[in-house]
Every structure is written in C-alpha cells, then in structure tokens.
C-alpha cells in the first residue's frame, strides 16, 4: 500500500476525500482567542493533527493564552488590546495570506469545536465547490444550553429571511473559506456579528455557501458569547446594515446554500 505524504492523514479513513491531502496543505487554521489559557493548548494540538499551520490570534488576553499557544506549537498574532472576534479574524486572515495559504479554517479557542470534524469541511468543499463551508450544530443540539439554542434558531430564521435562503446554523464560528474570496469582501464588523456579516457578504458576492453537520460541545463557563447582549448587538447590526446596503435575494437565489454535503437548500 502506498504511504500517505508526510503530515497527511491516511486517505483510507472514513469520510476523507481523495484530495484531502492536497487541500489541507493549502489551509491554515485561524483561532481567535481572548483569555483561553486553559483550553488553547489542547485545541492547537487537536488541529495540528489535520492542518500544517495553526495561527492563534491573541485578542488582548491577560492570562497567558499566547504563551500556552506558542508552547503547543502555534504561531501567535498578538493584538495590543481586546478588539473583538471580527478584528481578530481579520488579523488572522491577513497573516495566512502573507504566508501563502489559499484556505483558512476558523474555529474557536475554547474547545467547543471538535478538531475531529475538520476533514468533513474539506469533503464538503470538494463535493459542493463552495467558497464557504459552515458547521451546522443544530442537527444534534441537545448539548447546547436552552437559551443559546433558542437564540441561535431565532437569529438563523431572521438571517434566512434577509438572504432568502434557509440557513440552519448562521452563528457557528467553525468555518472553512477560500481566502482570496474572503479578503475581497467588505467585513467591517469587529465582534460576534462577523458570523452573520460573512454569510451576507458571501451571498451578496454570488458565492456558494455550504453547511456540514458538526458536533455540539459545550463546557461550563467556556463560551464568551452572552446571548441577550449579543442578540441586541446583532439587531443593531441588522438595522445599520439595512440602512447602508439592503440585501436583495437575487444573489442568494443564483447561488443557493448547500445543506449537508451537497443537498441544495430551497431559495
């Protein structure tokens, strides 16, 4: 049997596409972090099993997050003060571009995204030819706290109406994206609204989006999201975006989302 290239997963394992080794060599992980010293080393170690480069963006942490990430083998991009998830992601995308990568895999540093799901994103991207693949936790969301589950579904319904496409999990930060497409988009928001802004911007640009089922993992005290405060901020983002640049449904209908590895959504 022919051996896999160095640093590449065994292509005979389930759900790995034939091109996984090629795609993963062109992809860097971007992990925005704020005070995740207790989780980041394990996250980095898990991601390193699948990707050749892990970029941790330390968003003004005060607890040793950067030191733990470096010790685990990640390259760290430091922001001088806490600037928000959107700002941290943009810094990570830029560093990945400078290093010559074509794709970025985004995930959180709190351990709530399972690195074992990473191959599913590449399989979905290959099958769907999507420029953005988003994790879908809602197919098995019993582990998600009740309030988070209700808020996520409500936000996803609101964003689905805005785009004209059914979006099963609009708020999941576990994502794979074509870096050249990503860097061309206007994504000015700095905080958790970045998840919604990214979806709207990809649709407005006529880019295909896909969703892939992922595990739902929640650890006590781990998440930095505050459902009520962040929902209010999201509503302010929605109103501001509608005033600035209302999104029609034409682009979304031309390029419907792809649900669960290639099944087209109803646009």
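^ Assign residues to that structure.
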């Amino acid at each position: 049997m022919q051996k896999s290239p160095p640093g590449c997963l065994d292509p005979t394992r389930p759900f790995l596409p034939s091109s996984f080794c090629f795609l993963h060599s062109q992809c860097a992980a971007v992990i925005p972090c704020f005070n995740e010293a207790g989780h980041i080393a394990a996250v980095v170690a898990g991601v390193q099993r699948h990707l050749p480069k892990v970029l941790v963006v330390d968003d003004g942490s005060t607890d040793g997050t950067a030191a733990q990430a470096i010790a685990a083998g990640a390259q760290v991009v430091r922001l001088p003060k806490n600037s928000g998830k959107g700002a941290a992601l943009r810094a990570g995308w830029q560093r990945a571009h400078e290093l010559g990568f074509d794709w970025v895999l985004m995930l959180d540093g709190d351990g709530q995204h399972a690195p074992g799901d990473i191959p599913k994103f590449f399989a979905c991207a290959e099958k769907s030819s999507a420029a953005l693949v988003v994790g879908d936790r809602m197919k098995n969301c019993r582990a998600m706290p009740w309030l988070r589950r209700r808020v996520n579904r409500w936000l996803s319904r609101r964003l689905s109406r805005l785009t004209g496409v059914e979006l099963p999990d609009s708020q999941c930060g576990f994502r794979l994206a074509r870096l050249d497409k990503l860097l061309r988009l206007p994504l000015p928001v700095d905080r958790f609204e970045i998840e919604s802004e990214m979806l709207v911007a990809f649709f407005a640009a006529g880019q295909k989006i896909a969703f892939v089922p992922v595990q739902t993992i929640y650890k006590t005290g781990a998440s930095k999201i505050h459902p009520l405060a962040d929902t209010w901020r999201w509503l302010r983002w929605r109103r501001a975006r509608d005033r600035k640049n209302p999104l029609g449904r034409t682009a979304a209908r031309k390029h419907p989302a792809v649900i669960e590895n290639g099944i087209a959504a109803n646009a």
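The chain has ten helices and nine strands.
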